[in-house]
């Protein structure tokens, strides 16, 4: 069955090369060693068939290196020196052409892994200076990668992270999957290079078996599941769904968050026995707050004056007489459709004005009083002087008539 050739970055697309030379590489799966041209670019070893090839055939990520030890076994080439790289997934044996080359490879590997110049190696001052420059360059490169990843995460990556994403390292991811095996066995995490992501899986096969996969970000958008035959995915959710589908559900996303509590519980100590017990807090339902109804909005209405309001206007007597004259000259018209009474008709509702009635003057009845007393009374109670004089003349006339009659 033919397989698709894996797409790889060319040599001019790789990070800066710090050191290069021929090495013999042999892993636990190889039956024999292979002599390859090796370039230390960034924190990764890239292996080429020869110095002129542009495409690498293998690569070894040094972030998985645990330690380096010298292999004292003799080689066919007496000048050669062996080195063992202890990785998390196994051991890799490397043979350098000389002892000096082995020390240089060890120094550069320590420099990019620990970002510090090793002090336990026998190096010349010029070699130490080269490694210091390597440490500064690699530290700057990793900082730039971290800033790039942080900017991309803040823009659109964090919001689109699957629920199985955990910001942990490779070792922490293995511990989480081991301790919480009932929550899933597939976990998405950031990669050590700071520019990509990784997937860690755990399955049981006579013990825990962990696998780590790289998820690379494409320049034109989307992601690539970096395996022997790369699988393009539009989103990170597509990467997780692809793993679940291709394993027929054997891999399930790791969801750390569990269910929430439905009631408030607390631990309370018993004063009598001194023992602690779990208590449930009573919850009193909060009655709904009634919303006050808004009053209806008053509409515009026309004020119709009443006779009482018109009577309170305080018209003078002259204005009222003038209104009466106008009413006589112009008879009232029928009221309009709005039933507003005219002013003249409203005046008709008032009681008519009557002239003041003079009080009648009463005279006392005729009595036996003397004429002089009567004259004095009339002088006091009478009105003007003309009436008094007329009354006196009548009294004198009567007295003269009585005297003349008596003399006769």
UniProtKB/TrEMBL annotation:
<keyword id="KW-0727">SH2 domain</keyword>
<protein>
    <recommendedName>
        <fullName>SH2 domain-containing protein</fullName>
    </recommendedName>
</protein>
<feature type="region of interest" description="Disordered">
    <location>
        <begin position="271"/>
        <end position="372"/>
    </location>
</feature>
<dbReference type="InterPro" id="IPR011993">
    <property type="entry name" value="PH-like_dom_sf"/>
</dbReference>
<dbReference type="InterPro" id="IPR000980">
    <property type="entry name" value="SH2"/>
</dbReference>
<feature type="compositionally biased region" description="Pro residues">
    <location>
        <begin position="284"/>
        <end position="298"/>
    </location>
</feature>
<feature type="domain" description="SH2">
    <location>
        <begin position="163"/>
        <end position="260"/>
    </location>
</feature>
<dbReference type="InterPro" id="IPR039111">
    <property type="entry name" value="STAP1/STAP2"/>
</dbReference>
<feature type="compositionally biased region" description="Pro residues">
    <location>
        <begin position="352"/>
        <end position="363"/>
    </location>
</feature>
<dbReference type="InterPro" id="IPR001849">
    <property type="entry name" value="PH_domain"/>
</dbReference>
<feature type="compositionally biased region" description="Basic and acidic residues">
    <location>
        <begin position="299"/>
        <end position="317"/>
    </location>
</feature>
<dbReference type="GO" id="GO:0035591">
    <property type="term" value="F:signaling adaptor activity"/>
</dbReference>
<dbReference type="Pfam" id="PF00169">
    <property type="entry name" value="PH"/>
</dbReference>
<dbReference type="InterPro" id="IPR036860">
    <property type="entry name" value="SH2_dom_sf"/>
</dbReference>
<keyword id="KW-0597">Phosphoprotein</keyword>
């Amino acid at each position: 069955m033919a397989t698709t050739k894996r797409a790889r970055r060319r040599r001019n697309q790789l990070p800066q090369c710090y050191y290069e030379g021929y090495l013999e590489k042999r892993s636990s799966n190889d039956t024999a060693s292979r002599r390859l041209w090796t370039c230390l670019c960034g924190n990764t070893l890239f292996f080429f068939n020869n110095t002129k090839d542009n495409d690498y055939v293998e690569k070894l990520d040094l972030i998985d290196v645990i330690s380096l030890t010298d292999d004292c076994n003799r080689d066919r080439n007496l000048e050669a020196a062996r080195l063992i790289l202890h990785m998390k997934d196994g051991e890799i044996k490397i043979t350098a052409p000389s002892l000096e080359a082995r020390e240089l490879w060890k120094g550069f590997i320590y420099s990019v892994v620990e970002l510090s110049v090793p002090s336990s190696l026998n190096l010349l001052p010029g070699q130490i200076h080269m490694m210091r420059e390597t440490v500064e360059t690699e530290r700057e490169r990793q900082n730039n990668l971290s800033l790039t990843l942080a900017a991309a995460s803040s823009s659109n990556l964090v919001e689109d992270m699957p629920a199985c994403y955990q910001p942990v390292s490779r070792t922490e991811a293995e511990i989480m999957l081991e301790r919480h095996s009932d929550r899933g066995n597939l976990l998405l995490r950031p990669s050590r290079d700071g520019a990509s992501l990784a997937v860690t899986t755990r399955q049981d096969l006579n013990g825990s078996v962990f696998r780590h996969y790289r998820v690379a970000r494409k320049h034109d958008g989307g992601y690539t599941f970096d395996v022997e035959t790369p699988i393009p995915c539009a989103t990170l959710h597509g990467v997780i769904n692809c793993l679940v589908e291709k394993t027929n559900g054997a891999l399930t996303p790791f969801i750390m968050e569990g269910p929430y509590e439905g009631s408030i519980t607390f631990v309370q100590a018993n004063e009598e026995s001194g023992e602690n017990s779990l208590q449930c807090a009573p919850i009193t339902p909060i009655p709904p707050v009634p919303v006050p109804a808004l009053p209806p909005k008053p509409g515009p209405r026309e004020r119709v004056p009443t006779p009482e309001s018109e009577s309170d206007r305080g018209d003078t007597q002259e204005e009222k007489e003038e209104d009466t004259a106008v009413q006589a000259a112009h008879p009232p018209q029928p009221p309009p459709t709005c039933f507003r009474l005219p002013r003249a008709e409203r005046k008709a509702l008032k009681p008519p004005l009557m002239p003041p009635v003079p009080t009648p003057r009463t005279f006392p009845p005729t009595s036996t009083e003397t004429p002089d007393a009567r004259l004095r009374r009339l002088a006091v109670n009478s009105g003007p002087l003309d009436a008094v004089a007329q009354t006196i003349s009548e009294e004198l006339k009567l007295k003269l008539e009585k005297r003349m009659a008596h003399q006769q």
